[in-house]
Structures are given as structure tokens and as C-alpha cells.
Amino acid sequence: MNLRAPYPICLAGLAALCLAACSTTPVPAPSPTVNAPAVELGPAERAARLMQQAAGAGVSQGSQLRLQAAELYVQAQDTGSAVRALTGVDTSALPAEQRVLPDILRAEIALQQGHPLPALNVLPPPSPTYRPQYNDRIQSAYAEGLFQIGDLPYAVEALVQREAYLTNPEDVTANREQLWDRLMQAPLAPAMFERAQALDPTTQGWLELARLARSVWSDPAARQNAAAQWREQHFGHPAADRYLGEAMGRAAETATPPARIALLLPQTGPYAAPGQAVRDGFMAAWMLGGGFGEVHVFDTGSGDVFATLQAALALSPDIIVGPLRKDAVDTVTNAVTGGVPVLALNQATDTGRAIGRKYQFALSPEEEARQIADKAFDLGLKRVIALVPESDWGARSMLAMAERLQARGGRVLASRTYDPNARDFSGPIRDVLQLDASRDRHREVARALGFRPEFQPRRRNDVDFVFLAAPAQTARAIKPQLRFHFASDLPVIATSQVFDGQPDAQRDADLEGILYPEIPWILDDSGAIADVRKQVETLWPSVHARFPRLYAFGFDAYRLLPALSNDGLASGPLIDSATGQLYVRPDGTVGHRLQWAQFERGVPVPLPPEADTP
């Protein structure tokens, strides 16, 4: 309670009187004014006056005055003063219908301060006993808190439910405009659409429409077909009349690729073959897209990546794609490109040092390993033992899988590395399964008894699955050895290298039952991606046979360009394409959601999205 606020005003008046009394100069009479306009006070000034009135009021009236002042301070976004005003409010002295208002104000203050979790914790649920405007504010604050923590599906649901408390058609329209604007600004990721399946159809419709608006469509007919499907599936949806057209307009705006592209890839030297595979996939997508504009290929095989970059910039390209090798990506990431965006085809060592509009797209082992951990946990497989090669790739895969599984509540019981050049893997397999410990216990028992009782080794029984990072040739040897060492009943989830891209039921018979993530380019037997793959296999059969995944990688690099050249990264486009469902994170890295396959009779068989058993 501020009892000192009136005193500066009194002192100022007294000083004015003293000056007037001491003056020897005659003061002319003021000229009369007619209809002088009244000065309208702002929210903060009005709140300050209410606080002065509350200082001399009783508990009940003072609490109501402070509550009114707190609302005005929140309106003025003066959170410090709002908190001080609320401190003097005695909730029990308020009328029953106003007792929920302090909690609403505390939540609104927390949201203004950027603290969404405390806001969500203090908010009461809407109630039919509250005024409609209070329920409106509860839902609005609840939605804002969810937006701030990144829970987009439930934030949209909160705004959908808010309409039940809006009686003015203009307010309903404004609520939908707010919902749509937030959808257009928020990052979209595939996982959010999976979570949205549990929500109401109206919320799902808004999210799917945002996905259409933020997708990249190279074929106008496909875009219109998607719009028709949305309208049919969400018949009567409140967004159909206005926002469907806007969504399709946005999608059309991002469909134009850049006119001049500089493609930086190794075309000579030790990495020429992978670089050519990426180039051919990129050019296949360019040709299928109508061959718009120009593509200039620059060879980074010489090793002087900085000089190659400067040569590319001399052409004034609209975008630079590449380079491919990690050390070359570091060079380009730290270089000044004069505002020309770059889509690097690998991950930089330190993404935080990127200068300018630098984006990264990579088929990284970490991305795949994290999706393996998510898949295992979703299947109820929470305890893992791992076999990975003694290599940088093996270490990176193991670390990413372990971190994600443990973050979700799983456990890594043991991991062992193997020699990538070995043929016998029984040592690390026995070790990770604790079979040698079983034999040691048998020897101790035999010594104690004086004779050797009948014995069969037993593996550890606390394991849910085996994580296997291995190329196809190695996996064909490891899987039978796991079976030989009493682990035939353990599910095996492997990295995508377990399949070399060439189906051979007889050769891959020993991979039976292995579950692994795969890209649509290899897995799909029909549809648009399968058609493109068949065309590429015809045009460039030799290189494609060796590097099918790099072909798909190059294909998708081109498919991303319309979004990047229009700054689409900020809005997170979604593309169902050759390497999976592409999406863009807020940090500018491009993720790809993989599909899942399982070996049956030596051939990878696609699993439906709802499959829940390995």
C-alpha cells in the first residue's frame, strides 16, 4: 500500500503558491478558454489513480480497486506494477464472481514476462459458473502458454475451444485470424501431426490446412488435388471459406525454384563418385521440375573450397547448394556470401558460427539413430544392448541413440564395439550378452562341487532389444551369431546401412526379422517416388546402383530450394519426398522423417505407420 503517492503533488502546489506570493511583477489575468478538451488518461495513469484511491479504502473496496488497477497495468504491459497491485488484493473479500480474476491476471502477467509454465500452472479450467469473458481469457491465456512452450496441436485446440465463449461474431473472426497467423509462424514437424490424431476434427483440420499451406508443391495439379481432398475430409470446417484459398495461395508462392543455382560438389578426386551421384539426383529433380533456370556445377575436388565458393559467387547465383564434405561445409559456413543463401549438404562442426543465411541438409547418422530410439521406445522396448563398429560413424550413432533413449526414460544396459574388418564377432557378442560371466559362474560351481555339472550358457535376461549399427555384409554375419549365442528371441533394430539397396532374398535371408528405418526412394514400390527412381535407374544405372541413397539426397536437395529461396525455412515447409518427410527446424537444419521396414524372407517389407510390433 503506497501512502506516500499524494505528497509530491501537495508539495508542488505549495511551491507554486510561494512563487506567486513572492513575485513583484503583476500577473495578467488568464484569457478565458471555451470548451477545452479533456486529457484522456492512459491505462497506467488510470491504474495509478486507482491505487491512490485504494490506499484510503477498506479491505473490500480496496481489493476491488487494486484488482482494477492490476488489469490496467496488464493492459499497459507494466508487469511490475501489476504484481504489486495484486499483492494487496484479498481474494476472500472480492465478490464470488470475481475471485477467479486474480489467477487469470497472474497467468497473463507470467505470459508477458515469458514464463509459460507458471502461467499454465496457475490457470484454472473454464467453468460455467464464470462470466463468459473470464472463460474467454482463460482459454486465450492457456493457448498463449502452449504456443510459448511449442505445443502447437494443443494450443490450436485451445483457440478452437475458445469460440464457445465468444458471443460477438467479430470476436470469432478475430480468434480465427489469430489462430491462422500463429499456425503460419510456428515451426511444423511430423511428430505434431501424430499427436494431433487424438484431438477433435476441427483442430486436426486447422493443422492439416497449415501443412498444405506450408508444403512445397512442384505440380500445380497435385496442389489442387490436395486442396480438394482437404475440403472433402473436413467438410463444413470453419476454415474452408476463407483460409483454404489463402493456404493454396501461399503454397503456390513457394513453388517457384530459384533461377540461377550454383551446385558445389566433388566431381574429381576420391569423392567424385558420391558427388556425381548427388549431382545426378539433383539434376533429375531439376529436369522433372521443368528445367527452370540455370544450374552451374562447380568442382570442389581440388580441395580449395574457398576459391570455388568465390567463383560461384561471381555468377551472382540466387542460391548455393553444397558442398558435400564436412570440412568443406565448415569453410563455407564461416565465409561471407553477401546475402546469397547456402544449402550445405552436410552438418557443420559448429552451427553456431554460421554467417548469413546458411542452412544444412544431411543424411546424418545422429538423425537416424534418434529415430531408432523413438521407434523402440514407442514399441515398449526401453532397455537396449548395442553393437557398433569401431569408427566415427559408430560412435556418433551410439551416442545419439543413447541420449535420445535415456531422455525418454529408457536405459542402455551395455554397448560393445567390433572390428569393421572382422568376420568373427563372437567376442563382443558374448561380452554384451554376459555369456562369459555365465561360464565363469559355472566354473566356480564346478570347483566348489568337485565335478562339472551339465551346463548351458545363459545370456542376460534384462534386455528388450539389440541396437545394431552395421553395413549389410557385416549384419549378415552378426545376426546368425546372435542366434547362435542364445539371442534369437531378442528384437534387432538396425541402422539403414543394414540394407545395401539391392534386394536379394537369398543373400539377405540371415537378416530375417531385423527392423530398420528406410527412405521412400528405396522402400516405395509404387507412386511418384517409385516412378522417378525407375527413370533415374534407366538414365544413370551404373552410379545409381552404388549410391541410391545419395541419388535421393540430391533429388531432395533440389526439392527444398523453392522454400529456401523464399525464406521458407522460417515457416518450416513439409515435403513428402525421396528421403522421407522433410521438415525444417528453427535453427535452419533440415530433418527427414524416415519410413520403417522389416526383413521378411530376405526382403525389406514396408511397415504401416500404425504398426506397433517389431
Q: Which ranges are low-confidence, i.e. pLDDT below 50, for 5 or more consecutive residues?
A: 1-34
Oligomer: single chain
- Count of separate structural domains: 3
Strand content: 5-15%
Task: Specify the number of helices.
Answer: 25
Count every beta strand, where a strand is a DSSP E run of 2 or more residues: 15
The CATH superfamily title of the largest domain: Response regulator
Largest sheet: 8 strands, mixed
CATH class of the largest domain: Alpha Beta
What is the radius of gyration?
Answer: 33 Å
Q: Which structural category do the helix and sheet elements fall into?
A: alpha/beta
Report the helical percentage: 40-55%
Please identify, by name, the CATH architecture of the largest domain.
3-Layer(aba) Sandwich
Mean pLDDT: 85
Shape: globular
Within the CATH hierarchy, at the fold level, what is the topology of the largest domain? Answer: Rossmann fold
Through-space gap between termini: 66 Å
> Order of strands side by side in the largest beta sheet?
2-1-3-4-5-13-12-11
Please explain how this structure is put together.
The protein has 614 residues and is an alpha/beta fold. It folds into three domains: 100 residues, Serine Threonine Protein Phosphatase 5, Tetratricopeptide repeat; 168 residues, Rossmann fold, CATH 3.40.50; 164 residues, Rossmann fold (3-Layer(aba) Sandwich), CATH 3.40.50.2300. The chain has 25 helices and 15 strands. The strands form three sheets. It has an eight-stranded mixed sheet with strand order 2-1-3-4-5-13-12-11, with helices on both faces. The radius of gyration is 33 Å and the shape is globular. The relative contact order is 0.07.
